[in-house]
């Protein structure tokens, strides 16, 4: 399965809609798209994972790398609309202690 990433900007908020499976084969595509984002203190990034069905360790690594970059650039990053299954994955790995993660919750309108 492929991964699809689309972005929408709303003022100082950049919302990334990610769909599909994030694994060894699709993670490089996600990494490339995230690397294109210009991060700064003036921008907040929300990555909507409501349509992500699977993440493996490679996918987690992409999110960790992007989190580190956002932290270094003093940008705000939040992962939103995670399924309970994905939320549990971030909890088990301890990443939920580092990253701003919101399970389910309010969903932004799709693109």
Features:
alpha/beta, 31% helix, 111 residues, 5 strands, Transcription Regulator spoIIAA, five-stranded mixed β-sheet
Topology:
Elements: E1 3-10, E2 13-22, H1 27-35, E3 44-55, H2 57-72, E4 76-82, H3 84-92, E5 100-103
Parallel strand pairs: 2-3, 3-4, 4-5
Antiparallel strand pairs: 1-2
Report on the structure:
The chain has three helices and five strands; from the N terminus they run ββαβαβαβ. The protein has 111 residues and is an alpha/beta fold. The protein has a single domain (3-103), classed as STAS domain (Transcription Regulator spoIIAA, 2-Layer Sandwich), CATH 3.30.750. The chain has a five-stranded mixed β-sheet with strand order 1-2-3-4-5. Strand 4 (76-82), helix 3 (84-92) and strand 5 (100-103) form a beta-alpha-beta unit. Helix 1 (27-35) runs parallel beside helix 2 (57-72). The longest helix is centred in the middle third of the chain and has 16 residues, at 57-72. The protein is globular. Residues 106-111 have low confidence and may be disordered. Positive regulator of sigma-B activity. Non-phosphorylated RsbV binds to RsbW, preventing its association with sigma-B. When phosphorylated, releases RsbW, which is then free to complex with and inactivate sigma-B.
